[in-house]
Structures are given as C-alpha cells and as structure tokens.
Amino acid sequence: MFIKPRKLTPDSKIATVSLSSGFVTDVQHRYDAAKRQIRETFGWQVTEAPNAFRGSEYLYRNPQARADDLHWALSNPDIEGIISIIGGDDSVRLLPFLDLDLICNNPKVFMGFSDSTITLMQFLRAGVVAFHGPAMLTDLAEHGGIHPYVRSSVAQTLMGTAPVKFAAAPEWTGQRVEWMDPALQEARRQFEPSEGWVWLQGEGKVSGHTIGGCIEVLDMLNGTPGWPAPELWKGAVLCLETSEEAPPPAQVGYWLRNFGAQGILSHANGLLLARPHRYPPDWIPELYGWVKKVLWEYGREDLPVVANMDFGHTSPQMVMPLGIQTELDVEKRTVRMLEAAVD
C-alpha cells in the first residue's frame, strides 16, 4: 500500500532540516554532539539543508524556505535520509508549499516527531512510509551518548530489512537538563526502571497499517487539506502521543471523540498510546479511563489498546514506522511489524 524508502547503510548521507523551530542556532553544541554521535554509532554522514541554520526569526517568517529544504533533500541524489532537527508548533504553515508528487517520486527515509507529525502525515498522503522517531536535538543528542535502546531501534528499523518485534525499553527518564549549557552535554540523565507497556483492553490478534503522531499536532492538521482522506484511516493501527505541554486527560478524551465522530475509531484495528510526558501520577489512570470511556461511546470496547509505549515525547524512544502493517497480539502481549519498513 505504501512505497518504502531504501534502507540506510553505514555510509549513507543524511540531511538535517528545520521544518519547525529554528532553535538549533541557540544550541549549536548540542547539534554538534548529535552529529558526532550519529557518525560514531551508525556511520552516517550528516549535512545541513541550506536554510536549516538561518535562525528562528527567519524560519518563522519564511515557511516556504523550510519546505524548500525538504524538497532540496528529496531532490538531491546524494541524500538518502532526512532527519528533523527539532519540533516546534507551526509546521502546519508549510502545507501550501509541500509537493506530494516530489515526496512520492523520491521516497527517502524521513524521521522526526512532535510538530514533524505534519510532515509525516504528508508522506503518508503521498503514499510513502515515514518514521516517527528521534530528532537531532533529542535522543540523537542524548547526554553522554545515544541510548542503547535508541541505537537498536534505529539500526533495526532504518538499516535492516527484517520486520521488527517491538520491545519495551528497560528504563526511561523525563528528567530535564538545561540544553543551553554546553558544560552539561556529557552529564548523563537519571533513568528509572520502566513499568512496561499497559494492555488496556481488547482480545485476540489484529493488524493494520500504522498512522498517527502527536495528538495536539494532529488537532492542528484536522480540517485542513493536509488531513488524510478517510481511506487512509480504514483498518489502521492508530499511534498517538502527547507533547511536553501535557494536555489534561479530558482534553485527550475530547480529541479522541473527534476521531470517533469522524468514523476513525469505528474503522480502526488497534490503538497504540505513548507514555504521556510530564503527567502527574494521578493523571495516568484518569487518561486510561478517558480512553476506555470514549471507545465505549463509539462501540469499540473490542479495540485492542496498548498504552505507555516508548515512542514520542519520552526517552529513550523507539522508531515507530508509519504506513507499515503491524500486528497486536493481546494474548501474547506482543506488538510487531509484519513487514520491513525499508527496502
């Protein structure tokens, strides 16, 4: 159903793009750390798109320049993959400028999360697999080196041609370290043991292509020409996560109700929810309650739901390919790809 990009190799050339915020110019040391760690870990050569470092003010005022960078990377025959530098909150402004035919005719690995959800969904609309995963300034610039869980997920998903069986991270952290201070770049964060995934409801075994991203960004996309057609949602495994703004559980419930009103929940085959970022402990059961409540409202008590997964605004985060057939086995408690994400 979706075109797969070619796999990355240890000598692949990667372009980095600022499709949202131009914040990278304020934390050059962190970007440099990511670039070094990528080279040491995966062997990739990293180059910057022409406008990536033109600063926050310029990029804010020139959304077309951001889209031009994506087009440049897609059109450049030397570039094999594209990674978002960081998210933001306004890449929805790129929609009038994005060329879906160019994306379709030049399928390449594109990886990012958060506000990059806008671009990820345009790849799916163009019929191309996309990758919800680490950005340059987040897990790829992790203090003291890329986490082994991230290394494994990136290598298996982007450089391997076998389907991946997803696994819960053994540990996680939400600790904040000041990015602006170069002296803290090598200071490792404190991780705590992971409680694992939470299987909220459902039974049996289901499968479908993955689609989704950051739910706040999906809300910005909803109702625009960039919103996926109903056919793209049918039979899908929804993948949803929340940002560092920590929307309250009720708000997440309201957004899910919109999915229900559109018929998306009625036609879904499964739902994967990421670990909510910056949630107080008492919000988590409330969130799960809202999810189950809304699914009940739309007659989907049968829908398999896995929560607390390691994608999105959590560290370490896995790569979640979008547009790939994925299976949820409730009895075995497994989530796995049924096909490779790259050729």
UniProtKB/TrEMBL annotation:
GO molecular function: carboxypeptidase activity
Assigned keywords, A-Z: Carboxypeptidase, Hydrolase, Protease
Domain LD-carboxypeptidase C-terminal: residue ranges: 207-328
Matching InterPro entries: Carboxypeptidase_A_C_sf, Class_I_gatase-like, LdcA_N, Peptidase_S66_N, Peptidase_S66C, S66_fam
Annotated LD-carboxypeptidase N-terminal domain residues: 14-133
Ranges annotated as spanning the membrane: none
PANTHER family associated with the record: LD-CARBOXYPEPTIDASE C-TERMINAL DOMAIN-CONTAINING PROTEIN, MURAMOYLTETRAPEPTIDE CARBOXYPEPTIDASE
Similarity comment: family membership: Belongs to the peptidase S66 family.
Protein's recorded name: LD-carboxypeptidase
Organism: Deinococcus cellulosilyticus (strain DSM 18568 / NBRC 106333 / KACC 11606 / 5516J-15)
Species lineage: Bacteria, Thermotogati, Deinococcota, Deinococci, Deinococcales
